[in-house]
Structures are given as structure tokens and as C-alpha cells.
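Example 4.3 (complexes with small molecules)
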Amino acid sequence: MAEVLVHVDHVDGAVRKPTLELLTLARRLGDPVAVFLGAGADTAAPVLAEYGAVRVLTADAPEFADYLVVPKVDALQAAVSLVSPAAVLVPSSAEGKEIAARLAVRLGSGIITDAVDVTAGDEGPVATQSAFAASFTTRSRVTRGTPVITVKPNSAAPEAAPAAGTVEPLAVTFGALATGTRVTARTARESTGRPELTEAAIVVSGGRGLNGAENFPLIEALADSLGAAVGASRAAVDAGWYPHSAQVGQTGKTVSPQLYIAVGISGAIQHRAGMQTSKTIVAVNKDEEAPIFELVDFGVVGDLFEVVPALTEEIKAR
Ligand code: FAD
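Answer. The structure with flavin-adenine dinucleotide bound is encoded below.
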């Protein structure tokens, strides 16, 4: 059976959920081979095996420790030479897309970015992309060389399928570009203590209805009562009320949590594009005609400044 390379996204060996989704999708195309770069392979390997990796190729070097993409491209290129895979799957993060694009150039093949599904086709892997806020769906395949496909987070539910996960060292020779860049300073982002937006089981998002940055603590309090991540509509982000990293939608992040609560958000098509696959959708909006209500499982027509604090108190009391 053909093998499929999966680039592992991790933090010090803790495998991030998008990688488990890629392993699940890779199994449709062949036997997943995980490529783990950096420190922490001992922690990661059992998890990768649990989600179907037949082999785990590992390489560790100081070059992998930082946000430097070229060393990772060198490593993936070495893995492609070793395995001759049917495809290379990479998470659709900013870093992942840069790695994938550079790899496709090196391989002289083609790249498909931001796929939301990958299936096996008669002539090779077929990637599905969603265009114009999910108004159109395209299916494409790479016609030359090894397909490199980046897949959006939350495109598949991770399913365990234990495999051997044999750990094998990967020999990597770094090119001049890999060693020509170094990190000179680091600024740590202040942690909110909340889960990562794209990985959270519950997301509470606020929109223009909040009327100002000073009211976002209402959203944060509700989120904290549920152990949720905080999201925002573009209107709220553009107004400077919340950081862009929290934007949900076509030009923000795609989330697919078990529960999505939209507060003071009208439900424009560009917002829906980032949250419509959530399992259960709840909206609080004072306008009963708001388009978000076409999408919801539960809707509350009411003033968010009354509903949200009451809801938070109720949840906290349980
Ligand atoms: P509004 O549409 O103004 O809705 C505010 C809602 O709050 C209303 O429904 C109102 O009834 C309700 N409300 C007001 N006061 C209260 C109250 N006291 N209690 C309860 N409800 C109240 N948008 C995104 O979100 N994400 C994207 O990634 C994105 N990408 C875009 C890309 C492009 C190319 C374009 C053109 C647009 C994009 N947009 C995106 C913008 C999108 O079209 C909408 O403008 C935006 O989503 C509106 O945000 P909103 O729902 O917060 O604001």
C-alpha cells in the first residue's frame, strides 16, 4: 500500500489536534507516515501510532527549535526521497502553508492549499476546497509529481486507529538557507489560560452587538464559565475591540466545536463560513430576523446585556 507523509504540528512533543485530523484523512489514501521534527518524539510517537501512523520518522536539531521553515522543508524533502509517498499532508497554519509551498517548489510538483477534505481518486488524491464563503466547492488534484496538500483545521474528526508507529531516524542535510537564518529575540504572548480557538470544544464569540471593547469581558466571563475559547466577528475585530487572532470566518479562523455561541452577531455569510460546521449552534440576538437564526439549534431573542450575565451566573451556579 502507498504511504502518505504527514507533517506533525506539535509543541514540545504535544501533538496538536490538526495533525490527528491529518492522520485520519491520510488513512484514506494509504499508510500514514508521520514526520516529527524537533524535541519530544518520545512523547509524540505513541499518540501518532494511536491515530494510525505506521512509521514515525524523527529528526532533531537546533534548527527545528524556532519558527524557521527552511530546515523543516529540508527534512520533508529528505522524507519524500526516502518514502516516495502518494501525497504529503501539512496542516493549513501560516507556517504549514509556507513549508508546503516551498516543498512543492523543491519537488517540482503542485500544491493545493486550505483543503477541507481529501479523498482517494483513480488518478491520485483529490482535495476539496470551499470557495466564496462555502458558496462553491471545488475538487482538484495535482497532475505532476508528489501532491502537497494543506488541510484546514477541523476538516475531519480525529479517529483513533492504532498502528505500529515504528520510530525511525530521518537523516537530514541542511542547505545553506537553513543555517543562514537565526532568531534574535522572542516575545512571549500573554497566555489567556483559555483553550486554542481552533481546538476548543466550546467557542463563545462576540460581535458588533457588544457595542465596544469594554463589553467583551461579558463574553470572556461566559467563555470562562464553560471552559471555552473566545471568538469574534470581523466587525468587532475591525473596530479594534478584540484581536484578529480571535476572528472567526472567511478571513479569520475556521472552528468546528461541539458548541458555538454567537452573541450579538448577525450571521453574515462570511462569518458562517468559519463556524457553520459546529455541532450545536446557539445565538443571542435582539433581532428575531437576524440571519444567524436560520442556522441555530437554539436561539435566544433578547438583549445580550441581560441574557449573557444571567446565563453566566446560571452556569456558574451549577
Ligand atoms: P453586524 O452585522 O452589525 O451584527 C450585529 C448584530 O448584533 C445584529 O444582528 C444586531 O441585531 C445584534 N445586536 C445589536 N445589539 C444587540 C444587543 N444589545 N443584544 C443582542 N443582539 C444585539 N465577518 C466575520 O465575522 N468573519 C470574517 O472572517 C469575515 N470575512 C469577510 C470577508 C469579506 C471579503 C467581506 C466582504 C466581509 C467579511 N466579513 C467577515 C464581514 C461580514 O460580512 C459582516 O460584516 C460581519 O460578520 C458582521 O459582524 P457582526 O455580525 O458582528 O455585525
